Amino acid sequence: MKPLRRGRTTLRRRLVLLSIALTATISIVIGLVAVFSLQVFLEERLDNQLTSAVRRSRDFAGRPPSENRPGNQNGPGPNFLNAPGQGEDTLGVEIEADGTVSTAAVLSPAGETVALTTDQKKTVAEVPVDREPHTVDLGGDLGRYRVIALVIQRDGTDLTLVTGLPLSSVQAAVWRLTAAVLAVSIFGLLTVAFVGGLIVRRTLRPLNRLAEVATGVKELPLHEGKTALPTRVPEQDTDPATEVGQVGSALNTLLGHVDNALQARNASEARMRRFVADASHELRTPLASIRGYAELTRRTGQHVPPEVAHSLSRVESEAIRMSGLVEELLLLARLDEGRPTAKDPVDLTDLLVNTVSDAHAAGPTHRWQLNLPNVPVVVTGDEPQLHQVVVNLMANARVHTPPGTVVEAALRLVISEQGTPEALLTITDNGPGIAPDLLPEVFNRFARGDNSRSRTAGSTGLGLSIVSAVVLAHEGQVDVTSQPGRTCFSVRLPAEPPEDLYEPMDEVEEPDAALPPTALPPRDIPVDAVTQPQGIPVIRP
C-alpha cells in the first residue's frame, strides 16, 4: 500500500490521524513513566528487604552449627540461610579468603537448600565487596538477583558473605503493568479513531456544504454565456464568529463579484453583438448602392478614361469584398445571439456534389475528388448555412494550397459513441499543412494563415469561424488535424436514421489518422473531372 502524501490526504483524515498520533504519544509517555516509576519503587523496596536479609545473615553466620535448626545442618547451603525470617528463594554464598566458594545455595519454598552450579558460583564470586546492592544474572531457573557482599570475621579469618533476593517478583509486576498500559492504550486509540472520526465528520459538515456550493458553481455552463449564479452558501454557514463562517461569507462575496462581472461581461458582449449586427445591416444598403453605381458607370456608352475605368473596377471589387465581409459578420452576430436555426431535412450528398462542382469551377488548377456513401445522408438543419460550411471549407483548401493540390471531399454515415447516427464530412488535402502555432486558433475570428499556406486570393479570416459557429448551432462538432502533406477538416452532425445499414466505425477513416502526402495521389483523369463512386455520374462545371 502506497503511503498517502500530505497534500493528497483529506482534512478529516489528517485530523483523525493527528488525534491518534497525539493520543499514542501521550499513552507512550504515561506508560513509560508509570512502568519506570514502579520498577524503581519495587527495586528500592527489594533493596530494603535485601538489607534486612543481609543483617540476619551476618548475625546468624557467626553461630556454631549446633545452634542451627534441625534438619538443615547437613545441607549444601551456608548456615545463615537457616536464620529465622529468611524468605524463599534467598541466595546465600560463603567465599573463603582465598576466593574459593565454600558453600552456595538458594532456599527453596519447601525450606530446603538447592546448590548453585559452577557457573552460578563463578558469577556470584565476581560481585564487588562494597556492601552495595548489585544485580547479577544467574541464568537458568534463578534468573536475575539483587545481591550484597560483605566481609565478616569468623574464627579469626575473613569470610565473604553474599546474600541475594530474586528480582522475579519485581519483573512480574512490571510486566503486568506494561501489559495493562498497552491494553488500555490500544483501547484508547481505537476509541479515539472511532469517536474522533465521528466528531470530526460532524464538525466538518459545514466545510462539506461549502465544497458542494463550489462544486455546483464549477459545473455551471459559464462558457455558454450563463450569467446567473443562483448557488450561495447557506446563512447558517456564514457566521463570522467561526472560521468556517468566515470562509462561507468570503465565498458568498466572491460569488457575488463573479456574478456581477459575468453579467457585465455578457451585457458588453451583447451590446457588441447588437452593434455588429446593426452596423452590418446598415452597411448592406450603401455597399449595394456603391456596387450598383460603379457597375452602372462602367456600363455607360460614354467613353471613360482608362484610369477612371480601372478605379471604378477597383471600387466595385472592394465593394463586393466589403459586402461579403458584412454578410459574414451579420451571420456571426445572428449565430451569437442564439437565434434558432431552421429544422428542415438537408441532403448532404446532393449538397456536397453541387459544392464540389462549384469548387472545380472556381479552382480549375486543383484536383478535386469526391467520395460518397451508397446511402443518402440526411441531416436536420438550415440548408443555406450548411451549404456555406461546405463552401468555406472547400474555399479554404483552394485558397491556402498551391496549384495541383488534391482535395478530397468525403461523406460517411456512422454511429456515434452514444449509439446515434452521425454524418461525418471530411475535407482533406495534401497541401503544405497548417503551422503548428496557428492550428489551435484556426477557428478563431480573423485568424489568418502564414506563409506556409500561400494565399492566392483575398480572405476575411472569418470563413472557418463561421464553419465552427454554424456546426455548433446544429449541435455538431468540427475538428482539424494537419501535418505537412495532409490537412483534414472533419465535421460531425446528427443525422437521420437511413433505411439501410450504417457503415461500421472501423471502416471509416478517422480525421486524426496520420497519412503520408501520397495518401491522395493525383489520378490519371482530366483536370476538370470530379471522381464519383460507381453509379454516380461525373459532374462537370
Describe this structure in words.
It catalyses: ATP + protein L-histidine = ADP + protein N-phospho-L-histidine. It is a single chain. The protein is an alpha+beta fold. The chain contains nine helices and 13 strands. The protein has helices spanning 11-61, 118-125, 168-203, 205-218, 243-298, 306-336, 348-362, 383-399, 463-473, and strands spanning 91-95, 101-107, 113-115, 134-137, 144-154, 157-166, 344-347, 367-371, 378-381, 406-415, 421-429, 477-483, 486-494. The strands form three sheets. A six-stranded antiparallel beta sheet has the order 3-2-1-6-5-4. The two termini are 71 Å apart.
Rg measurement, Å: 51 Å
Name the strands of the widest sheet in spatial order.
3-2-1-6-5-4
* Count of helix runs: 9
Tell me which oligomeric state these chains represent. Answer: single chain
Count all strands and give the number: 13
Largest sheet: 6 strands, antiparallel
Strand content: 15-25%
Q: What are the low-pLDDT stretches, counting only 5+ consecutive residues below 50?
A: 450-458, 500-541
Tertiary shape = rod-shaped
Summarize the amount of helix as a percent range: 40-55%
Distance between the termini: 71 Å
Pattern of helices and strands: HEEEHEEEHHHHEHEEHEEHEE
Subcellular location: Cell membrane
Domain HAMP: 201-263
Biased composition (Acidic residues): 497-512
Transmembrane segments: 15-42, 173-200
Short description:
This is histidine kinase. This protein is of the alpha+beta class and 541 residues long. The protein contains nine helices and 13 strands.
